[in-house]
C-alpha cells in the first residue's frame, strides 16, 4: 500500500513538473486612441524614495493624470491641452518634464508610456532603460503590468505597477 501511494505521488508530481503554467499573449495590434490606466509607482531619485498612486487617461496625444501621495496625502492634477500643461486646472508655462523635475525632483517620459504598455517596447529612447517584468490580459492580448524605468545618466529609478488598463468608450 505504501509503495502504491508513493508511486501515485511520484506520478502526480511528475505531471505537475511538465505542466506549462505560463500563458503568453501577443501585444495588441494597435494602441487605442483613448485609454486609461490605474496603478502605483515607487520612485527612487537622488537618494530619496517616494510612493504614489496614479490614474491616467490618454485621448490621442493629450492626457489627464492624477497623482496621489502615499497614504492619500497630497494630490495633483496634471493635463495636457493644445495650449500646454495644466497643473490643478491652471495653465503653466512649463513643459511636463520641467514641472516634474522642479516639483517632484524626478521625471519620466510620459509620452512613451503607450508604446511601453501596449507594444512592450523597451527601446523608447537613449536616456531610459526599460524592463517589463509582468504582463496582464487586455482584450485577448497582453499589456505591461510591471515596468521598471532606469535613467542612464541620472539617479532615477521608477517602478510602475499597473492595476488596470482599459480602453475608454
Radius of gyration: 21 Å
Mean pLDDT: 84
Range of helix content: 10-25%
Task: Indicate the low-confidence ranges by residue numbers.
Answer: 16-23
Class derived from helix and strand content: alpha+beta
User: What's the arrangement of strands in the largest beta sheet?
Assistant: 6-5-4-3-2-1-9-8-7
Count of DSSP H/I helices: 3
Order of helices and strands: HEEEEEEHHEEE
Cα(first) to Cα(last) distance is 61 Å
Strand tally, please?
A: 9
Overview features:
169 residues; alpha+beta; nine-stranded antiparallel sheet; 3 helices; 9 strands; globular
In short:
With 169 residues, this protein is α+β, with helices and mostly antiparallel strands. It is 19% helix and 47% strand. It contains three helices and nine strands.
Helix and strand arrangement:
Layout: H1 2-18, E1 34-45, E2 48-59, E3 62-69, E4 75-81, E5 84-87, E6 90-92, H2 96-103, H3 113-119, E7 128-138, E8 141-151, E9 156-167
Antiparallel strand pairs: 1-2, 1-9, 2-3, 3-4, 4-5, 5-6, 7-8, 8-9
Explained architecture:
With 169 residues, this protein is α+β, with helices and mostly antiparallel strands. Helices cover 19% and strands 47% of the residues. It contains three helices and nine strands. It has helices at residues 2-18, 96-103, 113-119, and strands at residues 34-45, 48-59, 62-69, 75-81, 84-87, 90-92, 128-138, 141-151, 156-167. It has a nine-stranded antiparallel beta sheet with strand order 6-5-4-3-2-1-9-8-7. Strand 1 and strand 2 (48-59) form a beta hairpin. The radius of gyration is 21 Å and the shape is globular. Mean pLDDT is 84; it is low at 16-23.
Amino acid at each position: 500500500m505504501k509503495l502504491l501511494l508513493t508511486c501515485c505521488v511520484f506520478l502526480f508530481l511528475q505531471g505537475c513538473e511538465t505542466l506549462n503554467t505560463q500563458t503568453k499573449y501577443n501585444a495588441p495590434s494597435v494602441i487605442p486612441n483613448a485609454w486609461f490606466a490605474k496603478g502605483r509607482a515607487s520612485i527612487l531619485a537622488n537618494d530619496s524614495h517616494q510612493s504614489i498612486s496614479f490614474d491616467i487617461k490618454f485621448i490621442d496625444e493629450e492626457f489627464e493624470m492624477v497623482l496621489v501621495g502615499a497614504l492619500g496625502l497630497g494630490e495633483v492634477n496634471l493635463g495636457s491641452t493644445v495650449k500646454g500643461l495644466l497643473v490643478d486646472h491652471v495653465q503653466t508655462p512649463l513643459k511636463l518634464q520641467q514641472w516634474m523635475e522642479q516639483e517632484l525632483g524626478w521625471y519620466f517620459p510620459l509620452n512613451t508610456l503607450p508604446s511601453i504598455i501596449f507594444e512592450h517596447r523597451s527601446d523608447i529612447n537613449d536616456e531610459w532603460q526599460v524592463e517589463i517584468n509582468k504582463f496582464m490580459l487586455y482584450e485577448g492580448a497582453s499589456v505591461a503590468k510591471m515596468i521598471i524605468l532606469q535613467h542612464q545618466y541620472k539617479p532615477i529609478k521608477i517602478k510602475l505597477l499597473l492595476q488596470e488598463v482599459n480602453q475608454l468608450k
